[in-house]
Design a protein that fits this description.
Length: 219
Amino acid sequence: MNPTYYYDIHLPANMDSDKKYPVIFTLHGKGSNEKNMFNLLAPVADDFIIIGIRGNLRLGSGYQYYDLKSLGNPIREMFDEAAKQLEAFIHYVTEKYPIDPGKRYLLGFSQGAILSMTLALTMGDKLKGIVSLNGYVPDFVKSEYPLRSVKNVSVFISHGEYDSVFPVRIGHETAAYFKELAPRLTFNLYPTDHGVSEENQFDFLNWLKKDAGLTTIKE
């Protein structure tokens, strides 16, 4: 298989050739790129394989995974294809590198958060957990996609209280939706716009390490 997506991979500095590692796949926001996401995870780069997935569609100087009819309204055919191809990519990369398939995480921001939550719902316990930063689940995913149980999937959702792109109401609605499905849900609000604060970063890094059974970061 030729991977559909260009990707940037960071392997732990002192890798044990006999060991399989937890992995975090990152999905960037609309108009951004895979390299912008690595800084969020740099503090845990010695514990996880980190794979930044670049959207395959150009948008200005950056990229996207699908296009929109309007804000919050993805073009369905493009969204369907992205969800399908990203799942195939995750399986492809798991075979290619020393990845523990029982410890696969997704971390996405905005458009990447939307896809991370969608993939959690379609892949179920093929994923260990997701971190969703300022996103939502499209209505057609909830009502028309073949959904798997996420009762064994760890879910970290955060949203900006002053998000001017996806109002905080959307964060509350998204958390309420997952609360009914995912017992291992963490939902936090932060006093930010459509972005990621240092506090938010600190919290999800510790959440990732704890969930993967690793030592957490001290303040």
